[in-house]
Amino acid sequence: MKSLFPFDSSVVSQIRAELGIKKVSQASIRQMVQLVDKLQRHFKVQFIRTEMGVPGFASPQIGVEAEIEALRSGVSSVYPPIQGIEIFKNELSRFAKLFMNIDIKPSGCIPTAGAMQASAVTFLVANRRDRQKDTTLLIDPGFPVQKRQLGVFGMKYESFDIYDYRGEKLREKLESYLKKGNISSFLYSNPNNPSWICFTEKELAIIGELANKYDVVVVEDLAYFGMDFRRDYGKAGAEPYQASVANYTDNYVLLFSSSKIFSYAGQRLGAVMISDKLFARSFDDLSSHFVSGRFGPAMLQEAIYVTSAGISHSAQAAVAAMLKAVNDSSFDFVGYLKEYGERAAIMKQHFLDAGFYLVYDKDEEEDLADGFYFTVAFPGMNGEELLSELIRYGISAITLDTTGSSRTDGLRICVSHTTLGRMYELATRLQLFAIEHK
């Protein structure tokens, strides 16, 4: 029986044209989703979908039940408090202590509409503290939408790919920007989307030290909290703790998300976790945009208020219940997530067996963790060529071009939609690809 793969390239090109996709390397994630949806319908085949970073597990029942109970209690008829409900704030503060070993008062733990709003409101305040500092420095690769946020706000940014600047090399690279005097904030994710690098303690210490020296606010995106499966970060009040710049500076805002660690993406519940000292600090230049000159009140009473006017009561109740279960050691969130690591290990090997190579592969001297994402490339092809061809074998992804990576040969692979039962399909399609591209 003749294989369905590769798909007819003229049909793929026609569907791309209908969607206005001239280059897949420049397509947004949502455009790639549309393209794959159309190709699946046309060819009547299920893709191996790795293009979108969405949860791959059902939400924990404890959260679902808590949200239902909150709705039954009548909270849907009441506006939620801007600062968040007390139990959510208290449990997130406990979580910071038990799993990061850092002290953040509940007043600095404020719910947002996902980590997306968390980064947006942080930019609105952090980048207006000092008229001389008007630029965010993004340590790439990163989440493309955060650059769009800055663009929409009319804010400046600079960026560099960390690939060649691991360890002590990071200091000189950061200072090359900081010496100009215009950097207001740093942004990076840890673990990193898309590369899955994890910043080492040495690197976090450098970032914290320079944040202190140049008075920069560090925005640390912890959307994939605890998902470096090389170590078990899931034991409350016990080492190892999730690595964070919070150990090296008080100039930080941490971005929390329930989307991945609790698979609660649909309810859009995240948070900012603002250090106690930064929350209370006053900045004269905030008065150009805010009534309050203090960082915390400007964030809470103005930036968050005007962009959301409070976050769903019931979603806060749900995430508070899951945080409490984790804090009380009655729910092992790392154990709940570990299958992502198992999937990544198998999928990586299938790509390697088909002649691919890993793009980002080390944290200094240590191999990267197997987790939610990994990055691959194929000899002799750039990302545009590789993704255009892989699509014809029923495998989707995104290129690294849109993430700020200097590695235009690579693709980001997300493991969340590829269950263990589909690994043979992936291997078979990759081997067909390899045979055709020797």
What does this structure look like?
- The chain has helices at 9-18, 29-43, 61-72, 86-100, 114-126, 144-152, 169-178, 201-214, 276-280, 295-308, 313-327, 333-337, 339-353, 383-391, 423-436; strands at 48-49, 109-113, 135-140, 156-161, 183-189, 217-221, 252-257, 269-274, 357-358, 362-363, 366-367, 373-377, 395-396, 398-399, 411-414.
- The chain is α/β, with parallel strands linked by helices and 438 residues long.
- It has 2 domains: 9-45 and 338-436, Aspartate Aminotransferase, domain 1, CATH 3.90.1150.100; 61-327, 3-Layer(aba) Sandwich (Aspartate Aminotransferase, domain 2).
- It has a 7-stranded mixed sheet with strand order 2-8-7-6-5-3-4, with helices on both faces.
- Strand 3, helix 6 (144-152) and strand 4 (156-161) form a beta-alpha-beta unit.
- Helix 4 (86-100) runs parallel beside helix 11 (313-327) and helix 5 packs across helix 6.
- The model has no long low-confidence stretch (mean pLDDT 97).
Topology:
Blueprint: H1 9-18, H2 29-43, E1 48-49, H3 61-72, H4 86-100, E2 109-113, H5 114-126, E3 135-140, H6 144-152, E4 156-161, H7 169-178, E5 183-189, H8 201-214, E6 217-221, E7 252-257, E8 269-274, H9 276-280, H10 295-308, H11 313-327, H12 333-337, H13 339-353, E9 357-358, E10 362-363, E11 366-367, E12 373-377, H14 383-391, E13 395-396, E14 398-399, E15 411-414, H15 423-436
